[in-house]
Amino acid sequence: MERLWRGASALALWGAWAGGAMILLAAVVVTVEVISRKLLAFAFSGSDEIAAYLFAVGTSWSLAHVLVTRGHVRIDVLYGQLGPRLRAAFDLVAIVGLAILVLAIVDRAGEIFLDNLTGGNRSNTPLRIPLAWPQAPWFAGFVLFLIVTVLAFLRSLLALVRGDFGTVAATIGVASQDEEVKGELGSLGIATPDTQANTPTNTGAKR
Q1: How far apart are CA 157 and CA 71, in angstroms?
Q2: How far is CA 161 from the centre of its chain?
Q3: Per-residue exposure over 44-82, b if at least 16 CB sit within 10 Å of its own CB, e if not
Q4: Using alpha carbons only, what angle is made at residue 188 by residues 183 and 193, rounded to the nearest 5 degrees?
């Protein structure tokens, strides 16, 4: 399971890099089209369509990495007040709900892709792009998201059975503020000392 999780995490990271590059490329395409229209009085048709495809594929390819890094939005008003066992139980409920949602998305996206593939449908634009071409990688991103979601659930379930609440939290739990700060600084290449080593474990003992 750990090997599968590491492999899925690495694949999700590559997907996020590729997705980010596509979104950046979509912005470049739109920018070039706007500049050429304003300054050169020339506009190439289809830039908005191509940018939309790039944005859609880039977004779907990035979802798995957001899950791996626990970047999804969670309402944690009461979460921090619960014990480790209850937090782990609620985390499992949350990941099951997410898996059901992703499964529905994959089912619908797959249906759309197959319909356009078998029907040979093309976009209703001057480019006349076969819709199945951009929808294939778009659908693949959702499939990767579903696979990572299922692996996250299985990894967390096995950890919960063993009583390893730390692994559950590290896989599908809500990231603490310290973890979010470390993650942001780490993405910028800034090393941070372990806050646990510099923080007193019992601030109320000296009152």
Answers
A1: 20
A2: 27
A3: eebbebbbebbbbbbebbbbbbebbbbeeeeeeeeeeee
A4: 55
* Contact between 91 and 72 (Cβ < 8 Å): no
pLDDT digits (tens, 9 = 90+) for 102-131: 999 999 999 999 999 999 999 888 888 999
First to last CA, the chain: 46
Instruction: Share the mean pLDDT of the chain.
Output: 84
**Which residues are 130's β-sheet partners?**
122
Residue 193 pLDDT > 50: yes
Spatial contact of 1 and 155, defined as CB atoms under 8 Å apart: yes
The 3-state DSSP class for residue 76 equals coil
The stretches of the chain forming alpha helices (DSSP H) are 2-39, 47-68, 84-119, 132-162, 165-172, 177-187, 195-198
Q: Please tell me whether the overall predicted TM-score, pTM, comes out greater than 0.85 for this model.
A: no
Q: Can you tell me the distance from the alpha carbon of 64 to that of 7, in angstroms, rounded to the nearest whole number?
A: 12
Q: Which amino acid is at 116?
A: N
